[in-house]
């Protein structure tokens, strides 16, 4: 798995569908994602048109997940009509660049529900 | 998997605690702080001129060998004209190397929330930090935002912003952790006791921004230690001398530095230091007249260094007898008149209520006067002996 420059080496047709998506870099048990623009029909490990950010899903020492976004280029590609994969759209929603994705609200609601359900059980166990 | 997650969270918590023990806030904070914003006074052109003049420009100190991997020099053959051009360039480069780091007030961290979304509460177990990595932005312009677990989106704190900038756009020499030198009280004290002031200040400048609390605390500690050990010569002709003098003038403890300047026969510097202190504390004494008179009599540090370089080109015969006398004594007629003016001004300062160490300063001044008198007599005698017309 070789790294291509951020400006990308992927060849693309002018009117083909582009997509902003994650590419899984990293290794076994240690995910790390590049946020890239590439042709929609291509496999994630094929050369990309442009890398526009990175996402580290594992929390660091300060308990935060780091995301880097090249907002200027992302806005350019969105303006050109690029699509977004669902995880990428969710992340952009969380960043405040786009409206929050409905799926984020769903996860949040489910998490809250699960926590509320777990609480009485825990209090019963301690009592 | 969930066990791993749990262990990881525990580790993170432990790290946080360990960091708290080891943070620079644990350092003994310096007693002297700027009580209001010093920046307008510091960047004032007159203050800058005074500070630059006080710093002096000793070329062999500016271009000394440093502890860097490559200290090599290049040897070239040049015509005299090329050499003169090169001299001018050298002076410019030296001036550039002596640029002072700014003295600004501590920047306060304010919480700026962009949006609150209660419906997003608990969307993830950790917060997200987003950094804008758009090409060509300055570090200060780069936006870093944080989405907290409770769903609120806010601008990151100064600390986080700095960390992210260092992560994505690392500055050479700056560490992502606090160097042990600044975190550990004993190590810093050892550096101070070994008089490695320039090293500390250089590293401080690389590691911290001038508006950070640590920068103010540590630099104040260095200056205070320096004021006690009185090794001002270590910082003379480096970029830290100006902020140091400004610090002393601001906190009205210039007497030790003044004593050092008088001892080393830098009388015009002493006058500038007093003038600076008058300017900062708005003492109603007219210093501008003395300063302008002195300026007419004496060249700026850059001009002086340039003249020194140019004098290397001339052979001994070309110099003439007057120059030779000047070299032997180290002073010209103009210097003697300038000294007289400065002495009057300094005496006035010592007599006023602003000086704290009157006896010491007076003694130093007296010694200097005697030496100066001897030099003047020698100068006149030599001139007479060589038959040089008094101009």
TrEMBL record, chain A:
Keywords: Mitochondrion, Ribonucleoprotein, Ribosomal protein
Protein name according to UniProt: Small ribosomal subunit protein bS16m
Alphabetical list of InterPro entries matching this protein: Ribosomal_bS16, Ribosomal_bS16_dom_sf
GO cellular component: mitochondrial inner membrane; mitochondrial small ribosomal subunit
Superkingdom per UniProt: Eukaryota
Compartments where located: Mitochondrion
Main subcellular localisation: mitochondrion
Gene Ontology terms describing biological process: mitochondrial translation
Family annotation (PANTHER family): 30S RIBOSOMAL PROTEIN S16, SMALL RIBOSOMAL SUBUNIT PROTEIN BS16M
UniProt entry tagged with the keyword Membrane: no
Keyword field contains Ribonucleoprotein: yes
One of the record's GO molecular function terms: structural constituent of ribosome
Protein family membership: Belongs to the bacterial ribosomal protein bS16 family.
Automatic annotation (TrEMBL), chain B:
Alphabetical list of PANTHER family matching this protein: MITOCHONDRIAL 28S RIBOSOMAL PROTEIN S22, SMALL RIBOSOMAL SUBUNIT PROTEIN MS22
Pfam family of the protein (one): MRP-S22
InterPro entries noted in UniProt: Ribosomal_mS22
Single GO cellular component term: mitochondrial small ribosomal subunit
Species of the source: Drosophila busckii (Fruit fly)
GO molecular function term, any single one: structural constituent of ribosome
Phylogenetic placement of the source organism: Eukaryota, Metazoa, Ecdysozoa, Arthropoda, Hexapoda
Name listed for the protein in its UniProt record: MRpS22
